[in-house]
C-alpha cells in the first residue's frame, strides 16, 4: 500500500500531538509527515517527536529533537529529492512498524542515477502520540555500500562468500 496524504507545510502547522489518541492516529500523522517530507518540515519535528526521543539507524544513535533534526537536515544536504514511499504498517499498543522505500539521487556522486533503499521503521509513542523511539532498519551493505565503485565489488564478494 502506498501512502497518499496531503503534504504538511511549515505554514500550516501539524495537528497537536495530544490529538493522537492512539497508535493508529499517531502513525497516520507520522506517515503523513514523512510521505511528503522536505526541508520545510524540519521546524515541525518537535510536534512529532518527544523532547528526549531516540533515533537509531545504521549510522546514527542520537537522542533529542535537535539531534534528530540535524540528521534529517544532513539527509536533505546529501540527497536530491529524497522521498519515502510507505508499503506496509503493523500497528500495536503505542507502537508501529512500517516498511518503506526511500527514493533519491545522490547530490555529489552519480547524480543522474535514481537510487532506492528498502527499509523498515519501528516507532514507539508516548501518551500524547509523540515518537519516543524511531529505529530504522535497513541493510547498509546491500542498499548503499555495494553501489560505491571501490566498495561494491568487495561487498558483493563478501555477501556471496557468507551465503555459502
Report on the structure:
The longest helix has 14 residues, at 65-78. Residues 1-20 have low confidence and may be disordered. The chain has one domain (17-139): Nuclear Transport Factor 2, Chain: A (Roll). The protein is built from four helices and six strands. The protein has helices spanning 23-35, 65-78, 140-143, 152-162; strands at residues 49-56, 61-63, 79-92, 95-106, 115-125, 131-137. Strands 2-1-6-5-4-3 form a six-stranded mixed beta sheet. With 164 residues, the chain is an alpha+beta fold. It starts with 22 loop residues before the first helix and ends with a helix. It is globular. A hairpin with a 4-residue loop joins strand 1 (49-56) and strand 2 (61-63). Residues 31-134 form the SnoaL-like domain. GO terms for molecular function: isomerase activity. Keywords: Isomerase. It comes from Extensimonas vulgaris. This is Steroid delta-isomerase.
Distinctive features:
Nuclear Transport Factor 2, Chain: A; 164 residues; globular; disordered N terminus; 26% helix; six-stranded mixed sheet; 4 helices; alpha+beta; single chain; 6 strands
Q: What is the structure about, briefly put?
A:
The chain is built from four helices and six strands. It has 164 residues and is an alpha+beta fold.
CATH T-level fold name: Nuclear Transport Factor 2, Chain: A
The total strand number stands at 6
Q: What fraction, in percent, of the residue positions are helical?
A: 25-40%
From the alpha carbons, calculate the radius of gyration and give it in angstroms. 17 Å
User: Would you state the CATH class?
Assistant: Alpha Beta
Strand content: 25-35%
Instruction: Give the class from helix and strand content and strand pairing.
Output: alpha+beta
Q: How widely separated are the two ends?
A: 34 Å
* Morphology call: globular
Number of domains: 1
Q: Which regions contain 5 or more consecutive residues with pLDDT less than 50?
A: 1-20
Oligomeric form: single chain
Strand line-up of the largest beta sheet:
2-1-6-5-4-3
Amino acid at each position: 500500500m502506498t501512502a497518499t496524504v496531503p503534504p504538511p507545510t511549515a505554514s500550516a502547522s501539524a495537528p497537536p500531538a495530544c490529538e493522537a489518541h492512539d497508535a493508529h492516529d499517531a502513525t497516520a500523522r507520522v506517515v503523513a509527515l514523512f510521505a511528503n517530507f522536505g526541508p520545510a518540515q524540519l521546524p515541525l519535528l518537535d510536534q512529532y517527536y518527544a523532547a528526549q526521543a531516540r533515533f537509531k539507524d545504521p549510522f546514527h544513535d542520537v537522542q533529542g529533537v535537535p539531534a534528530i533534526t540535524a540528521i534529517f537536515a544532513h539527509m536533505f544536504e546529501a540527497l536530491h529529492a529524497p522521498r519515502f514511499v510507505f508499503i506496509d504498517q503493523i500497528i500495536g499498543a503505542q507502537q508501529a512498524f512500517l516498511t518503506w522505500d526511500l527514493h533519491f539521487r545522490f547530490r555529489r556522486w552519480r547524480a543522474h542515477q535514481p537510487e532506492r533503499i528498502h527499509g523498515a521503521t519501528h516507532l514507539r509513542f508516548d501518551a500524547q502520540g509523540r515518537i519516543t523511539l524511531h529505529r530504522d532498519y535497513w541493510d547498509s551493505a546491500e542498499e548503499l555500500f555495494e553501489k560505491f565503485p571501490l566498495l561494491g565489488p568487495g561487498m558483493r564478494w563478501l555477501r556471496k562468500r557468507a551465503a555459502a
